[in-house]
Amino acid sequence: MTDTGKALTRRNDPPPPRQGRAVPPVRAIVAGAICVAVLVLVILWSWDWFIPLVERRAGAALHRRVTIAHLHVRPGRVIVIGADDVRIDQPAGFENLPPLATAKRLDVAIRWWPLLSGGGLDLPLISLDTPVVELQERADGSRNYDFSDPNAPKGDRAPKKGDASMPRIGAVRIVGGQLHVMHARLHTDMRGQVHTTEASDPEGARLVMDAHGTYVRQAITGHFSGGTLVSLQDRRQPYPVDLEVRHGETRLALHGAVEDPLSLAGARLRLSLAGPDMSLLYPLTGVVIPQTPPYRVEGNLDYTAAHVRFRDLDGHVGSSDLGGDLSIDPHQAVPFVDAELHSRRVDLADLGGFFGATPGEKPSTAQQQEEARAHASSNAVLPSTPINMPKIRATNVHFAYHGDHIENRHTPLDNIDVLADIRDGVIDVHHLNFAVGSGTLASSGTFTPRGDAVEARIGIDMVRINLSRLMQATGRFHGNGVFGGHLAVHGTGNSLAAIVGNGDGGMTVALDQGGDISAVLPDLLGLELGKALLSLLGLPGETELKCVIADMPLRQGILGTRTLLIETGDTRTVGKGDINFRDNTIDYALMTDSRHFAVGSFPGTLHITGLLKKPSIMPGTETIARAVGSVLLGVVTPVALLPTIEAGVGKESLCAQAIRQMRDNPASGQVPVAGRPQRVSHHQARAAHRAHAAHAPHPAPTGRLSAAERARIKQVWTQRMKGQHS
C-alpha cells in the first residue's frame, strides 16, 4: 500500500477511546435509584408508621386516649383496614375502671370509588374480634359514655349534628363480644355476651345477645335475637325481633318483625307479659300500675311517630279477664298513658290495689305479704298502704274501664264502670260506679298532692240498693228491703286510712223493709257479734226490721251521731257515741225501747267499746239503762233527713213514713205502714243530701258520750261486777 493509501485508511478509522471517561447515562441512574428505593420501601414498609396519626385523630374525636398496637391496610377495589389490640381509655374521673372499650381485632372494609365520586360512605364489612365495652353512670349523673368535649362551655358540649347521611353497612361480624353496664341511680349491674351468626345469605345473619345481672335491685336475665345492622336499613326485608326477659318474677316476651325500624313504622310484634303483680312492670315500662294479683296478658305492639300502642290486649288478672287497648306517648315531659280496658267477668278483689288494699284472694308477692302482715298487725280497719306520690307524678293517665259482670261470692256488686284522669299528680275520679241489683252505688273524687300526701274529696251516693242483692254474697239471707244514702269525706293523708282519720264529712244512710233482723245483723256484723247484739238488745228471733236510719257526721276523723234509729215491729232502738278512725276505736251506746213498756224500762241496753277490729260489748242492766237513758233520748229527731231518705229509698218507704210520724208525733209508738219504694237517681240523692246539710245545724251534738257519762256507766258497771263476785 502506498503512503497515500495508508494515510487515508488511518483517517477513516475511529479514534481510540479515552481512558477513565466512561459514565452511565443520567436516566439510568435515576431509574436505578427509583427501583432501589421502591424495593427498599416494599421491603421495609409498615402501616404502623400511621398509627400516631390515627390515634391522634381518634382521640380528638372521642375526647379520650386511643391506642392501637398494629395497623394493616389491604389495597384493592375494596380497601380493608385492620387494627390490632384497639384500646379506648376511660375519660377523666373514671380511671379506676377497666378501659371503656377494647378489641383484639377491628376490620373495616371501604369501597373507595363511591366515596371519591360523592356517593357516600360504603362499608361492606365491619368485623370485631373479642370486643369488650365497659359503661357506667354514677349517682351524680356523670357517665363515661359522654363523648362531648369536656373543655367546651356547657352550652356547646352537645355533639353537633352533621349533614352526613348514615353509611351503608353490609355485614357486621362480632365474635366473643362482652358488655358490662352499671347505673347507680337505677341500681343496675348487667353483663351481656354478644355475637353474630353466619349465614349464606347476609340477610339471614343474626345478632344474638344474652344478658344477666341486676336491674332496679331485681335479678334479670334476657335473650335477644334480631337482624344485623344491615337489616335496619333494608326496607325490603322486615327486621326480625325475638326478645325474652325475666326480671324478678316478671316475664316479658316480644316476637315479630318491624318493616322500617329506623323510621319507627310497620311493627308487627306480639308482646306477652306475665308475673305476680303488674306494679312490678314499672321498671320495665315506666308506666305506673297499682298492685294486682298474678296476671298474664298479651297483645299486638306497634308504634307511630307519637305513640307506642298495645292493642287487642287479652288475658287475665287474678280471676278476672282483661281486654282493650293501651297507648303511651313517651315524647311528653311526663309520659302520657291512654287506657281503654274492659272485662267480661271481674272479681272485685282483683282491683283491691286501686283502693290501697291487698289485691286478690291472698298476697302474691313478698311486698304484698309484708303489707298484709303490717295491716293485720295494726288496728287499722281501712287500707293503710301509703300512696306512692313520686310514682303517681311520673305518669299522666286517662283511664276508662268497664266490667260487665262482677263475680265474687263476697261481693254483692253486679258491674263496674270507671272513668279517671291523672294529670301532674292530681287524680280526678270522674266516676266509679257499681250496679247493685236495680240500684246504683255511684262515687267520685279528687286527690290533690300536698307534699307526700294528698288532699282528698270523696263522695258516694247509694240509690235504691236492693238489700237481698247486698246480702246475697253471704249465701244465707234472702229477704227484701232497699238501702240508700250518701257519704262524703274531705281529708288529707298518705293512705285511705289516714285520709279518713283526718277527715271531715259524714254519712246519711237508710235501710227500708230490711227483713228478719236475726238474719241481717249476724251477716252484716259477723255471726258472734251479731247474735250478741240481738241478745243484749233484747230483740226476739224472727223480728222484722222495718227501718234503719243513720246520720253520722265526721269531724277530724271521728264519726259521731246525730241520729241512729232502728225500727222493728215491736221495738225502737236508738244509738249515740262515736267511732274514732284516728285510733280505730269505738265508744257507742245502744238502747232499745219496747212499744209495750214505759220509756223508763228498757229491755235492752248495751255499751260497745274497744278496737273496731275486735270490740267488746258491755251487757246492759236497768241501772245502766237509766244512766244513759237521758243521753240517748237527746238524740236529734231525724226530720231534717227526710229529703235524703226519700231520695235514697223512696217517698213511700217505711223510713220516710217513720220520720214523718216522728215529726208529727214524736212519742208515737205506731208501727210504720209498708209502702213501695220510689226509683230515684243518684243526682237526686246527692241534691237531697246537700239540702239536708244546708238545713241541719252544724253545731248539733255529735252523739259522743261525755266523760261524765262514761264515768257514770263505768261506775254502775263496776258496782254490778262487784255484786256478782260477792
Automatic annotation (TrEMBL):
Example GO biological process: regulation of protein targeting to membrane
Stretches the record annotates as Disordered: 1-21, 139-167, 357-387, 666-705
Keywords, alphabetical: Membrane, Transmembrane, Transmembrane helix
Record flagged with keyword Glycoprotein: no
Domain (AsmA) ranges: 213-561
Biased composition (Basic residues): 679-695
The keyword Zinc is annotated on this UniProt entry: no
Comp. bias (Basic and acidic residues): 154-163
Residue runs in coiled coils: none
Gene Ontology cellular-component terms listed: plasma membrane
Record's compositionally biased regions (Polar residues): 376-387
InterPro entries associated with the record: AsmA, AsmA-related
Membrane-spanning ranges: 28-47
Protein name listed in UniProt: AsmA family protein
Native source species: Novacetimonas pomaceti
Phylogenetic placement of the source organism: Bacteria, Pseudomonadati, Pseudomonadota, Alphaproteobacteria, Acetobacterales
